[in-house]
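Async update (no meeting this week)

Hi team, since we skipped the sync, here's where things stand on the single-chain job. The sequence we agreed to prioritize is pasted below, unchanged from the tracker. I ran it this morning and attached the output directly underneath so nobody has to dig for it. Comments welcome in thread, and please keep replies under the output.
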Amino acid sequence: MGQQVDGPDRAHRRPAGVSDATVEALGKLSEALECVERARGHLYSLHQLIGHADLMLDDAVTLFRSAGHPELAGRIEEDLLGRNVIAGRWTFQIVEDFDDGYYALFRELDRRARDELVGGRRHLYEAEMKERRRSPGRPGHEARPAEG
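Output:
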């Protein structure tokens, strides 16, 4: 068995001729995409929370009617229950528009930049930062998981 070489694996090593500026730009694009991924998660949270709240309104309407407040129950049922969250859209439509438009384009341009500039490699900026910051030979500072 060969001894494992210290340092990042091939998928996380900069190809020959790629500049620091290119790695930095790809890193910034990746960081921006990570922010968009987090925003997408929040958008899905909004989708689920609004949907759950809308279903809870059924119980609120029933309880207001039982408590002797039929006018308020009716107003909630007719004006709020099932209402669009923004003009013409429920949250599933917002999620679909986001996923198919902005999000799809962002991911495609990130992938294209990596494919064209560094052979599809991901997280080069972070891999190089790890190499600068770790203490080779120290436990917990390995470049990558042990083989096998």
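Quick observations from my side:
The chain is about 65% helix and 0% strand.
The two ends are 10 Å apart (CA to CA).
Reply here if anything looks off.
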